[in-house]
Fold this protein.
Amino acid sequence: MYLIRRFEEEAARAYAQGKIGGFLHLYIGQEAIAVGAAAALKDGDTVFQTYRDHGISLALGSTPEACMAELFGKDTGVSRGMGGSMHFFDKANGFMGGWGIVGGHVAVAAGAAFKAKYAGDDSVTLCFFGEGATNIGGFHEGLSLAGLWKLPIVFICENNQYAMGTPMSRTSAIQDLTLKAQGYGMHGDRFAGYDVATVRERVQQAVDRARKGEGPTFIEIETYRFRGHSMSDPAKYRSRAELEERKKKDPLAITKSQLTDAGMSLEAIDEVEEAVEEVVSAAVKAADAAEPAKEEVMFDSVMATKLGPKNREEAEV
Amino acid sequence: MRELRYREAVREAIAEEMEADESVFLMGEEVGHYQGAYKVSEGLLARFGEKRVIDTPIAEAGFAGIGIGAAMTGLRPVIEFMTWNFSFVAFDQIISNAAKIRQMSGGTIDVPIVFRGPNGAAKQVASQHSHSVDPFYTNIPGIFVVMPATPRDAKGLLKTAIRCNDPVVFLEGETLYNVKGEVPDEGEEELIPFGKGRIGREGTDCTIVAFGRPYYETMQAAEKLAEDGIECEVVDPRTLRPLDLDLLVESVKKTHRCVVVHEHWPYGGPGAEIVDQIQRHAFDWLDAPIERVGSLDVPMPYASNLENFVLPTVERITDAVRKVTYSEKK
Ligand SMILES: Cc1ncc(C[n+]2csc(CCOP(=O)(O)OP(=O)(O)O)c2C)c(N)n1
């Protein structure tokens, strides 16, 4: 969790320096969810997330070097500089992507769960999205099919209170989102996501159920993003006081006090934090030094069948 | 005349039409309280209230449909897509419904609706957020497709669009919102008709047809070429459906050479349509095959070095003009 936090703080700094372009959606404040959920998985499971994808990618085991390099648009990035912040992919670690169109990946994730059922393997899929996504058609069709076919998937709605600048009171007629999933015949669960152990335990229950063939679960997890929707959002729609109040439930602070309560010394925590500092600054250095994204990768990666253009001349008209 | 930014020109058009006609309303994501994702609708909520400046959930197919139904029954919706990339989830509403209703109903039901928002690549927002959607929408009979490059054109054409009794796809430029340009003074109403292009720069040696974002690269290319004595005529069709064929043909008859510049991918689209129409209507006047400059035929990559490589550049435009005018680089 601390790695994700520090990784993103450095990413924000690099963004301000112009080393990162495009949209940068930070996960700061929500880290307990990615880390807790990832801990409930085993090899062979797959995960789909929105554009707010750095946290889960790191939690699943992507290296900070490859993640930072992706943000810097480098060839050594998780998506070789093709995807950027919103489109991390790390197949080896089960991460099937950061997706840019709200709701667009929900049915796709159900498709990965369909594969597990079809092939008769016992893998499970996790699909993350925000509360804003529960209003779009793609969400409903994905859940509808997953419920109908009892697919081994867990839908995790990270309710961070705002869809861009709009609070849920202005986007949804109901405030308990598990009611939406109920109509699709799936299990529902709903809890606060500030304590990483709780997240792990509750997601584990849903994952186990899916693995046993008992169908999908929809989980609504209460959380809060400390930064704006993306770097370009000054978040004027919420008050300073609200933010400060919410920061009292910072999952990192909660974990830290749990660790000291359990007998971990402050020095030992410092050591962990220092190690993270080194990893993150090494990632920034490596990303700085890496080769920029490559033309041939851009052309070759479009299709598996190599019949497309291979250079500018062929790609012109 | 005064100077306005493109975003202000769009805002003025919406505000003036809302002022003039109670049945006009604006609907979309973050158009109200947030003041617009790109600040186009800034201040409109305060001015017109929540009844007429309506924030929606993320539900493009839903609010596009709401707009169409409201238009069928007498309102004049202006539906904002936060960007045109997100119109794809509402594509069915536009192609199967908005564009078909009038003929399907034997001409009895009008659909006076405007779908608008920023189109095209921005800066490093990668493949799912970088579409120039004009090729998809220009293929559809039953709708108008407008793609203004300048603030003045944006304002005058949007006013026409809102008053139009048919569906209009209005493609603004995500990277053009800060562009400044002359716009008629307040009180001097200008309605720019559909199907009428504009000469951006006069010239005798080569016609360059350009619309949307690369209109600006084209104007720069024309200035560069002028330094070498090649005088280009830049023609902006402004509406892509219908096209101002007369203006295009007239220009080509004068210059005998033509390059078409567009942001969209090379396969088909208005770029190819323009070439086809010109070669059929001005074949005898052409002294060289028509060239095209567009984005390269790949999904847009994230990395900035590659994004700049994929988008049409001044250099590729000048190269194309040199090719059709058989002139060497000096
Ligand atoms: C179909 C579609 N419409 C609009 C957008 C623009 N957009 C990106 S994120 C976002 C808000 C999403 O909010 P939520 O689902 O709650 O997730 P969060 O960003 O809070 O994690 C919007 C409107 C989009 N990407 N896709």
